[in-house]
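Researcher: Please predict.
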Amino acid sequence: MKFRNTGKPYCSLIPAGIAAIAALLALASCNNAGGGYSTNAATGVQYHFYRHDEKGATPVMGDYAELMLTLKNVNDSVIYDAHHRRKGGDTSASFRMVLKKTYTGCLAQGLTMMAAGDSASFRISADSLYLKTFRLQALPPYIKAGSFLTVYVKLISFETPEQLQASLDRQIKEREAEMAKLKAAEQPEIEKYLSDNKLKIKPESDGIYILERAKGKGKSVKSGDSVEVKYTCTLLDGTLAESSEQGGGKNTFTLVFGHNHFIKGFDDIIANLEEGGRVKALIPSSLAYGNQTISHLIVPYTPLIYNVEIIHIK
């Protein structure tokens, strides 16, 4: 194929449509950070969306974002994973962060590109993240200077400061209502236990119900004594909540009487008990753990039954 010499530059012979496509490709290459990442021209954020609602509302600086996050280094090794923050009883591995610009191209700016439900990864300067966002004096030893980190993010939701405060106020009111409900239910629960077990027992002056008591033959417990005991603690329905069983054949517990090493009600029921003596008592929450949550069994305002045997006093 031969071209006719027209005297015009060769590039002018390229059809206008092809030239336009070439220009678009050149522009795209300028906004591509490599490795599948694009660069936001306004912020310099390097990003890649896995799921993106282009019509969804996005947060702004100052908002609080709830997100799931995994951080990996240049070798694709996990540095941080929000899932590992999960503890017993947790139902979520997400956490909340306030969006604040710490440098151009920071993670917070990347999050302002996301809508709730979006998933994305961001290529972040390790130096900037640790020294500017985290405000460390030096990079951790496991972070290579000048390297980039990959941050995988799923944006769960976001709130304005006003929305967050309203949400916190609502949660406080709900918690207070739940606590009031638990507190009101305690005495009826105690009375039902006594009735179901046909126990016609009046509480002591401090509110403790002594259900059984057997005298021992040794000396009595006095303030400052080191007291070795064997005990179990159950809920009113008989569910075991605590015990002196510590494994390895050790099934006793030692405390210094009168030094508040345990709940107040425990000291009260063993006061003046002799070595070898036993006591079974129903201790109201006011002398046990009160409004604290100790475990999934011992929640606020839980009355407890203690079976205690005095093993040794010294």
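Model: Residues 220 and 274 are 4 Å apart (CA to CA).
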